[in-house]
Amino acid sequence: MRLRDTPTVEVTERLACNPEQAWALVTDIALPTRADGELQRVEWLDGATGVVVGARFRGYNASPQMGEWYTEPEIIEVEDGRRWVWRVGPAEAPVAVWGFEVESDRDGVIVRQWAKVGTGRSPLSDFIEQHPDKESAILAHRMAVWRDGMAANMAVLEQLAGCNA
User: Fold this and answer.
1) Domain residues for 64?
2) pLDDT of the chain along its 165 residues, tens only?
3) Cβ-count burial of 135 within 10 angstroms (0-12 exposed, 13-18 middle, 19+ buried)?
4) What does pTM read for this prediction?
5) What are phi and psi of 19, to 5 degrees?
6) 152 near 14, Cβ under 8 Å?
7) How many structural domains is the chain composed of?
8) What is the CA radius of gyration of the chain?
9) Which of 61, 89, 98, 113 has the most CB atoms in a 10 Å sphere around its CB?
């Protein structure tokens, strides 16, 4: 696995709830703060109050390995009721791109969260530069952290919606 290949991680869960309920939950930017993961708190910026293209928010993160930091993502795509995507970092060289998707299913919905590593400068890219011989292992670890966080988000979705997978 190489940084230049912009690896992606994805977690998908089938939930026995309606699409509107799932959409309301996945568009709550504070959802991941209810799970065990790096995001500690989040707030809308510039007067934004919801998921619309161009809206920005600040996420405060912490981990034992990386310390504390914040990001200011921008929402870059919204397909109301189905998909929303946000970018971390500048448009020309994002650090990462994340998204949630809700898809109707005969027994409820399928919810998908995914993230793709970008090509922008970040503490991750700096660390890989310092340890090029360990690039694959560093990326595998980071992808596992993201995957674990997404799985925790799905568990929270199940609890909040009263869904059964």
Assistant:
1) 3-161
2) 887 888 999 999 999 889 999 999 999 999 999 998 899 999 999 999 999 999 999 999 998 888 899 999 999 999 999 999 999 999 999 999 999 999 998 888 999 999 999 989 988 888 999 999 999 999 999 999 999 999 999 999 988 887 544
3) middle
4) 0.92
5) -60, -35
6) no
7) 1
8) 16
9) 113
